[in-house]
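S.,

Sequence below, as promised.
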Amino acid sequence: MSINEELQLGRPMEDFRHEAVLNIVRTSNLLSQKGALLFRHFDLTEAQFNVLFVLRHKERMLTQSDLGKRLLVTRASVTSVLDKLEKKGLIKRSVVHGNRRIYHVDLTPKGLELIDQVEPRYRKNIHVVLEDFDEGACRRLIADIEKIRARCHALDAADFT
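The prediction came back faster than expected:
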């Protein structure tokens, strides 16, 4: 379904770049909504899943600050998510030797077991959504989206005033 039909616009959009951005945003929101339905079955939010995912695939110990940077959330947000995951027994925080203000964050065995249950189901859904895209098409899509993201990063806040 076209974005014009989905948004029930009376006439076709005249700005194809704006139409492209609306398609990206609408698709991103829809993917998040569908992911949230899956995560809810495991008593997780999207943010909590993302933390568990990053911790599952890390190559070194991560601090709360590292997680915040990787997930692009504020320090307060990452602290709140980690507090909830810790209460569920899915992660543990340990003081970094020599610096009592910084904590390493890691999965508990329970957290590892949970992410190992959720991630395959999540990936299965992604494969269904992208089943018409072969590896080449996926790589082109990735490259195109990376270009868009790079240009977004290059924009200055003044460009939006």
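The beta strands are 62-63, 91-96, 99-107.

Coffee later?
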